[in-house]
Amino acid sequence: MKVITLLVIFLFSSFAANSDLKLKYFTNNSYTLVITKKIGTFQVNDFCQKNSACKALQIAKGKPFKIQPTKAPFLGNPAANYCWDTGAKNRILKDEKNNEYDYCVFDDGSMIDAWNLYNTHHGSK
């Protein structure tokens, strides 16, 4: 019975990870709603859904950036450091249950899941 329960939880969580996410982004002393969707293997914001030339997708589909020795404030988070290496800022977005998600936010307004970008270029270890 435990195996079946764990399998159901795993399948549900796998499905949920691929669905649209409604996230809150704190900016200018208030939260802004950000809807993210999958484009190919990447979870991106609505800006990239409407504009496939967005920086987030260009970086994601391009060659991996060389990881620099970190000077960023996120010493323990390689995905956050990689955002900085690509020229983006790392930001934490929250869903309605206050679960946190790392996103790379580029100067053109595009956003991409930081761990998805990092793992695409450097593999999950």
Number of strands: 6
- How much helicity do the residues have? 25-40%
- Neighbour order of strands in the largest sheet: 1-2-3
Task: Average the pLDDT over all residues and give the rounded result.
Answer: 77
- Tell me the domain tally: 1
Q: N-to-C SSE series?
A: HEEEHHHEEEH
Separation of the first and last Cα atoms: 31 Å
Structural class: alpha+beta
Radius of gyration: 15 Å
Strand coverage percent? 25-35%
Low-confidence region ranges: 1-18
Q: Counting H and I runs of at least 4 residues, what is the number of helices?
A: 5
What's the overall geometry? Answer: globular
Let me know the largest β-sheet. 3 strands, antiparallel
Structure notes:
The protein is of the alpha+beta class. The protein has one domain (2-122). 37% of the residues lie in helices and 29% in strands. It has five helices and six strands. The strands form two sheets. It has a three-stranded antiparallel β-sheet with strand order 1-2-3. Helix 4 packs across helix 5. It is globular.
Give a topology summary:
Blueprint: H1 2-18, E1 21-27, E2 30-39, E3 42-45, H2 46-50, H3 55-61, H4 78-85, E4 89-94, E5 100-105, E6 111-113, H5 114-122
Antiparallel strand pairs: 1-2, 2-3, 4-5, 5-6
Task: Write a concise synopsis of the structure shown.
The protein has one domain (2-122). The chain is built from 5 helices and 6 strands, in the order αβββαααβββα. It has helices at 2-18, 46-50, 55-61, 78-85, 114-122; strands spanning 21-27, 30-39, 42-45, 89-94, 100-105, 111-113.
